[in-house]
Write a structure and sequence with these properties.
The protein is an all-alpha fold. The chain has three helices and no strands. α1 runs parallel beside α3 and α2 runs antiparallel to α3.
């Protein structure tokens, strides 16, 4: 008669503390803000090409430039929040970074609507 196969022991529990949501959120705000600055710069360049070809003026590129500035401010604030984590991060800085980031995302949506409306009305 054959022996039954040995069952491996269950994996050991990892009781190390998981990274807090605050640290994880600051990292995401920082990286997405940096990416969105690049997206805004690309959009401004493309809009300027269309404006030059069509000989028209638009405020969308100004909206997107303000948007890029908000993303830069949000990224800097979240970076400050991450760096000051060791010395007791001020939660106010992180909260401001999140609010500026959300405001920039809303402005992105408004700029997109203005761009689509502007293109469709020509």
């Amino acid at each position: 008669m054959s022996k039954p196969a040995a069952v491996p022991p269950p994996p050991e529990r990892d009781d190390s503390p998981a990274p807090s949501l605050d640290v994880d959120l600051s990292v995401h705000v920082f990286t997405v803000s940096a990416t969105m600055v690049g997206v805004c710069l690309t959009a401004i360049g493309l809009i300027r090409v269309v404006v030059t070809i069509r000989h028209m003026e638009t405020l969308v590129d100004d909206l997107i430039a303000m948007n890029a500035l908000l993303f830069v401010i949000s990224g800097l604030l979240s970076y400050w929040a991450m760096r000051s984590h060791r010395i007791g991060r001020p939660p106010v800085v992180e909260a401001i970074a999140e609010k500026v980031f959300l405001g920039a995302m809303i402005l992105t949506g408004i700029a997109c609507l203005a761009l689509v409306y502007g293109i469709n009305t020509l």
